[in-house]
Amino acid sequence: MAAEIIDGKAFAAKVRGQVTEHVTRLKEEHGITPGLAVVLVGEDPASQVYVRSKGKQTVEVGMNSYEHKLDADTSEADLLALIDQLNKDSEVHGILVQLPLPKHLDEDLVINSIAPEKDVDGFHISNVGLLGTGQKSMVPCTPLGCLMMLRDYHGSLSGLDAVVIGRSNIVGKPMAQLLLGDSCTVTIAHSRTKDLPEVVRRADIVVAAVGRPEMVPGDWIKEGATVIDVGINRIDAPEKGEGKTRLVGDVHYESAAARAGAITPVPGGVGPMTIACLLANTVTACCRANN
Ligand code: GUN
Fold first, then answer.
1. For residue 216, what is the domain's CATH number?
2. Which of 39, 50, 139 should be mutated for ligand 1, with most atoms under 8 A from CB?
3. Of 115, 133, 161, at which residue does a domain stop?
4. Most-buried pick from 23, 48, 220, 251 (CB within 10 A)?
5. Closest Cα partner for 165 from 260, 254, 231?
6. pLDDT at residue 2 is higher than 90
């Protein structure tokens, strides 16, 4: 049987609708407009696209967007001074520093200088610790989006075998924490994992987040498993014409869809959910700040 396609684009539109309603109520009933500050250092083309999209969607749901674009050679002191100013600004409820940062800047130092309650990425060490101990925290946007889609499809995740492929701080590790929080039996697999195909074949839920185009073939997928593909990889597509490219995930979609019970497509799966969850986290931060 063909897999159900988990439509992240439609799901994200629903989340944005809920955020818009919440923002409207905050304005009408409390006179508060949530605000998100996004800081971009340098001119990485992919980061520029993401930041533009974040700003546009922030405004579309009725929130204030504050964009800070800094030169690639900005000093650490100047960046920390800006974050300090945003930390103190009561109109700013969420702060996001787009990663990766230029090499001369210490990413950990910069992220940990954001006030934890405004850290809508959930990357601050306090939020990482709170999530790991099951306490109320800011939850990283991409894994949060994956969890929302999994809960929506399965209802309860309790007792399911989940494999997360990839151990990044942004996706793999927080994803594993969230699945554990929902009582899955969780394996984190990575480049040194022995017999990865066998590990994946046992899983009821596969979350692929490694950034390697189509590295998970369909025959690794257990019949009926749920596949969440976080990868967004651009590859050459000579079949579309000379110099053309296309986006693929970390999973080989056609062969995996033939075995899975449900699967997220690329594009249109996890991607749209990430920014929707960022907007939701900003509203959460605003509500906590005003309670
Ligand atoms: N770069 C790639 N993904 C992310 C993300 O989720 N947050 C930030 N701040 N930077 C990123």
1. 3.40.50.720
2. 50
3. 115
4. 251
5. 231
6. no
